[in-house]
Amino acid sequence: MHRRSFSAGRPRRWRWLTAALLAFAVALGSPGLALAESAAPTQSGAWPQMVPPPATVTPRLEYWAPSASTHILITDDALAGEGARLAEELAALGLTDAAPEVAYLADASLATEADIVLGLDDASLLTVDDSVTVTGPDAAGVFHVTRPLLQQLVAAGDIANGDYEFSFPAEQIRAAHIDIARKHYPIEALESLVRQLSWFGFTELELHFSENEGFAIESTTHPDIASPDAHSQDEIRELIEYANALHIRVAPSLDMPGHLDHALDAYPELRLHDAYGGNVFGALDITSDAGVEFAHDLIGEYTELFEQPDMPGPVPWNLGGDEFVDFADTAEVQALTHAAQAKFGAQATAYDALTDFVNTTAALLSDAGYQPRVWSDGMLRSGSVALDTSVQVAYWTQRPPGAVPASDFAAAGYELVNVNDEFLYFVLGERVGYAYPTGESILAGWDDTVYPSVQGSPDLVEASSGGMFAIWSDIPDALTPDALVERVRAPLAAMSVKSADPASTLSFADLTSLLDDIGAAPEVAQVKVPDALATIAPTPTATPRSSPSTVPAAEGEPGGSVIVFVLTSVGVLVLVSVVLVLLTRGRSPVPAPSRRSPPQM
Asked: Which of the four pLDDT bands, split at 50, 70 and 90, describes residue 546?
């Protein structure tokens, strides 16, 4: 088969040793001894070279690589798009000279040793024997398994035969959030981030487009609120389409009723006022009907833009609710307190006014088909109004005094997304005490059950829905868009590893080596799904030949014993031959060391 230059200098002696061990197992009449299932290796440059690594690997003899004869064969019409994409990606990565032909496979036995077969199955599995078979519960599941296949082929030029099982739970949130309101990111940079997310098995990009310093998407209902460099809705629509093709949903983050200073410059009459008549920075007046109507008008405009009917489940919508006002300043919250007391009684506080707004807005989003999401810091602090339990909580910090621990949210029945600012906050310019996460601390101390510390100890929440890496553009010029995308690569990869396996012991040095080996995701543009595919099916006159090893001997006949005798004899001959070759090769110069280790037996 075709071998790329990646194989040059590989220590083939390991393959001969593997062959010797397997031959010895056959000689003993127990070939199953060679198929020991093991956890994926984690040493530097170790095989397999995949991020995240497979949950388990069952290695077998020999290796596979694509060749000029490779076809992409699909077993279900739903996988036509995945087949077309994989073909283009193989060519884009230089793994094949041209995009392989994509065809429909009617009979699995007709796949040749050069082919890649895509099929639907409950398990996310990559099986490499004479050909390669990739399975997943749906098209997204198959896509997620083809990522590590491509990574291994890029890193080594081939992949060891065996079974590779992956953990990509469909219900697990694997997300990244990016603040595009305070920094303009060209669509090309956002697409690059999307490709990177898809390379590591992420499923969501949360797009934060409203901030005190800017409003990043064109508004047709309120055109005067958009920043001068705001993206057009058509640009965002194209980004969403691009992300969806890579099985990443795009969740809007339209922060309210705080973080709206830029938008309120055009509507000063909608600002919240303190007891002295002054403006409360960035705060919308939710005590007035006009203020609430303004917020809901914006939501109504963007619900259509972010519709993604082909993505599973309701798309999340982060409505914010964070850092609204200084609740400890009685003058600043006077209007909120009075409004809450008028509606809910004398015991009500400004927190009740905020929670009431969140509930009303969440209901609007639910009716529009979205999953409402809110930041954690201002929630569960009201005494008269309970936060609706249908609202998903993005839990991020214990910094504000009196912040409710994540475990309290979980105990009250709220679905939590882990955005732990001790590990997952990438704040441009390293503002307000945040250092850029490298990924090292994520590997060492985070998984999606580890929430912000309470009294010095991590708050552990087993019922976590997943995690979200947050990029905030506080100091916009601290990094260029391209530099930022590159800078977050390692922490995103680390998060991917720990999301797949919370018990992973992969070191940061190992991860860095793996990232060097697997390279970047292929830059493949939108792939057109073929209108019709050729079908590979048996001809009517074809008569399958029976393999001697699969024909049972008649009762009382010595056929079974003959087969065992032949297998054993062949095994012994192979073993003797291999030993002779090893002895002969022992006189040759030893190849240069390689970082790539053999399949673990």
From this structure: very low
From residue 323, how far is each of 233, 263, 400, 469, 561 by CA, in Å? 27, 16, 9, 19, 78
CA 40 – CA 91 distance, rounded (Å): 28
Query: Residue 20 — very low, low, confident or very high, per pLDDT cuts 50/70/90?
Result: very low
Q: What is the mean pLDDT of residues 414-438?
A: 97
Residues with Cβ within 8 Å of 526's Cβ and at least 6 positions away in sequence, in order, are 241, 242, 245
Q: Are 597 and 38 spatial neighbours (Cβ–Cβ below 8 Å)? A: no
Distance, CA of 119 to CA of 135 (rounded, Å):
5
Burial class of residue 459, CB neighbours in 10 A (0-12, 13-18, 19+):
buried
Residue 151: phi, psi to the nearest 5?
-60, -45
**3-class DSSP assignment, residue 85:** helix
Residues 434, 445 contacting (CB under 8 angstroms): no
Residue 126 CA to chain centroid, in angstroms? 18
Q: Which pLDDT value is given to residue 540?
A: 57
Q: Would you state the structure tokens that stand for residue 251, as one six-digit string?
A: 């969740």
Of residues 563 and 530, the one with the higher pLDDT is 530
Distance CA 158, CA 8 (A): 12
pLDDT value of position 91:
97
Q: How far is CA 519 from CA 146, 279, 442, 470, in A?
A: 15, 50, 21, 23
Q: Nearest-5° angle of CA 279, CA 284, CA 289?
A: 115
Q: What's the pLDDT tens digit per position in 393-406? A: 999 999 988 999 99
Which of 60-69, 219-228, 441-450 is predicted with the least confidence, judged by mean pLDDT? 60-69
Counting Cα atoms < 13 Å in the Cβ hemisphere of 58 gives 13
Three-state secondary-structure class, residue 373: strand
| Angle 569-574-575 from CA coordinates, rounded to 5° | 100
| pLDDT at position 549 | 35
Cα distance between the two ends of the chain: 24
Element (H, E) at 92: helix 80-92
Mutual angle of helices 139-156 and 80-92, in 10-degree steps: 20
Please give the angle made by the CA atoms of 591, 14 and 588, to the nearest 5 degrees: 35
- In angstroms, the Cα distances linking 474 to 181, 427, 432, 479 are 10, 6, 9, 11
pLDDT tens column, 121-135 = 988 999 998 889 999
Q: Which one is predicted more confidently, 27 or 76?
A: 76
Report the length, in residues, of the chain.
601
Handedness of CA 586, 591, 595, 596 (dihedral sign): negative
Half-sphere exposure of 390 (CA within 13 A, CB side): 17
For every residue of 446-506, DSSP letters joined together read: --TTEEEEETTEEEE-SSEEEEEEEEE-SSGGGS-HHHHHHHTHHHHHHHHHHHH-TT---
What is the mean pLDDT of the segment spanning 209-235?
A: 98
Strands 132-136 and 38-39: unpaired
Which phi and psi (to 5°) does residue 99 adopt?
-65, 125
* Residue 186 pLDDT exceeds 70: yes
